[in-house]
Amino acid sequence: MALAIALTIAAVPPLAYGVASYQLLNGKIQFIADMQAARVSKYIYAHEALWQYQKLRLTELVELHTASSVEIEQRIIDSKGKLVLTVGPFPGALQLQASAPIRVAEKTIGNLVVASPFTQKSLELLLLGIFTSFLGAFAYFGRAIPMRKLERAVRQIENARDVLARRSAQLNEAQHLGKIGDWSYNFGELDVYWADEIYNLLSYQPDTFRPTRDAVMNLYKEGGATRLLDVQAEVIRYGVVRSIDVPVQRGDGTIGHFAVTTKLRTDSDGRKTGIYGTIQDVTDRKTAAEQLEKLAFHDPLTGLANRTLFHRRIDDVFARSKRTGELGALLLLDLDRFKDVNDTLGHAVGDALLVKVAHLLARTLGNAHFVARLGGDEFAILLEGVTGMEECERIAAEIVTVISGMTVLDRVEVTVGTSIGIALIPDHGTTSTDLLRNADLALYRAKEEGRGRFKVFESGMDEAVQEKVALALDLRNALANDEGLSVHYQPQIDLSTGRVISYEALIRWNHSERGNISPGVFIPIAESSHLICDLGYWILRQSARQAKQWLDEGVPAPAIAVNVSAAQIWNSDLVSDVSSVLDETGLPPELLCLELTESLLVDQNETRVRSVLKSLKQLGVSLALDDFGTGYSSLGYLTQLPFDKLKIDRIFIDRAPESERAIELLRGIIALGRGLGMTTIAEGAEQQQEIALLQELGCDQVQGFVYARPVPPNEAIAFALRLDANVLAAKIKDQQSPRAATAQA
Ligand code: C2E
Ligand code: CA
Ligand code: CA
Known about the structure:
It is a single chain. The protein is α/β, with parallel strands linked by helices. It has 4 domains: 2-175, Beta-Lactamase, CATH 3.30.450; 180-288, PAS domain (Beta-Lactamase); 298-459, Alpha-Beta Plaits (2-Layer Sandwich); 482-728, TIM Barrel (Alpha-Beta Barrel), CATH 3.20.20. It has 25 helices and 24 strands. The strands form 4 sheets. It has an 8-stranded mixed barrel with strand order 16-17-19-20-21-22-23-24, surrounded by 5 helices. Strands 10, 11, 12, 13, 14 and 15 form a 6-stranded mixed β-sheet that branches. A hairpin with a 5-residue loop joins strand 7 and strand 8 (255-266). Helix 1 runs antiparallel to helix 3 (119-141) and helix 18 runs parallel beside helix 20 (606-619). The radius of gyration is 50 Å and the shape is elongated. The model has no long low-confidence stretch (mean pLDDT 87).
């Protein structure tokens, strides 16, 4: 041990001093050589064969380097090894050399050699070596140094080294876990120091990638290098600590996100010597942040933009349109019958349908336009940079076509459609509120006109819609307070007996300010504002009560026919409503007939219609197909659905007696009804000749002004009694006449 210490004392200091001096000087002159070679390379313009004859200029260039603290001699040697020029004092026989290539147009045309004297340093080393050898020998032989203490000190140092090694391993581990590595850079040097972990993080190999300052800066992408240089300039100027996120190209070509933290390094005199800091992989954090942002601005179901992002975007579009004069448009979409899909097939199918629609929209519009889901089955599309109204209409028409039709979802067939309201930017609004309202008005109109179509906003839509909205509100109140609504009854007459056999219940509304409003006006409003179900239930209950009262009073033929809107089948549980009304009022089901129009059949998926109608039949009520001939129903429906009665629409009766063709048509319809085993009833008969014709053609029943208008219940009964009395009187007359005749005979 003692010998080892003595040898250490003798050898380590001169060796360490020698190596350090060598490295320091070598680093310095290599740096000077690189720099000078680069400078010469840069300023040589002449032909590559002639460059060396520009000695004066070369000397000037080389002499420019004066900043060095070391004494140097610079030589320029051409590619064949011939000395071209020397500048500076000869450094002596013991010298250190560094050389760097002079390159012009990628070609090495010579070398710049920097030499520095090493004689002085060698002498110093020799003296130091002699001195430490003496010291070592003295320590060993003379035991002049307290060896025990020294041994203990050495052990302590070793311990400390162990601790340090452990700590450094821990630090490495921590860096690894934290995906963080440290770096440092001394001003004037070529290379940046990278901790192992940085190589790891960035997937570079220390033997193939040299982290020079330039090479490192090249790794920062998307303007990252410029931003980082700005930040580091600030760090150097003000001594602050800064951290920025920059995209970095990894060794495998991928881009990751890294936080680069920079701090200033100063020496003991406060001189700024370099910068150092850390690089941390924040790709995961960045991805998480991006996902959060996606959550905040996107609809999780369809992945489309949500309402928040839509509002931001619409503001952008307005700003751009104002700046560039570009035209744009807002398309508001609403799926027809979406609620129905949700209610009958379940939310999973409803969701799948929304995803499908989102997909279709994205495919139809490509990346050119912005699509958002505003909620429920409402979508919005922002068209930007369109040429005009025609283009918007073409796109809207395309969307209507793409979305309407049968879609198969998870083996279930679903029929949907869409209605679109269009508002143009800037014509139909210069604020998002205006634009949205106007597109919404256009959408309302599109739906009202029969769905599955688009409508561009027009001025005036506003007032019409406002009025409807106001009426809907009044109707709601009327219904809630049971004010102004009543039911009138129009008798239905059996043509074979000439007696009333039933009454059609028809709603009447006496508006507190506007007086009587026709059901032709307010029923469609009730339908589009979802009031119809409550209204329908009210009429059903009211007329069933009336019929039961007639029954109890012993009034003849208390059967009633009640109109049912298609919406009641789709948006309410009609079967349970009818059943509870029958229970509550005690009306026998065979006294109730429900009138349904053909529109119900075209619009909806058959399965639901079939099952509701079947359940209604099971309750014991009868069903009439209203307005027959005006809709689109095929004979197929007629034969498959359980209708008891065919109500022939007024247009077939009107003026039929005057037209041979009309008579034939009527004859065909009546024959058809009879052939299917249905009762036929003609509505809207206004003239006596029409009755005669209907009788001749074999129609079973008639309802029309020719007999009676819809009237309050008392009047309806009075009419029926009067008719009965007439019939009775006629019968008596009939019976009396033969007797009179016999008597006379
Ligand atoms: P609708 O079901 O076809 O009812 C027959 C309509 O024709 C009634 O009009 C009736 O007054 C009218 N009418 C009857 N005979 C004649 C005639 O000889 N000549 C002419 N020109 N018209 C005749 P109203 O009461 O104005 O009802 C219009 C429509 O409103 C009804 O047509 C029906 O679709 C709807 N509606 C009326 N009440 C209700 C109701 O309680 N519920 C539902 N859902 N719809 C109703
Ligand atoms: Ca009717
Ligand atoms: Ca009708």
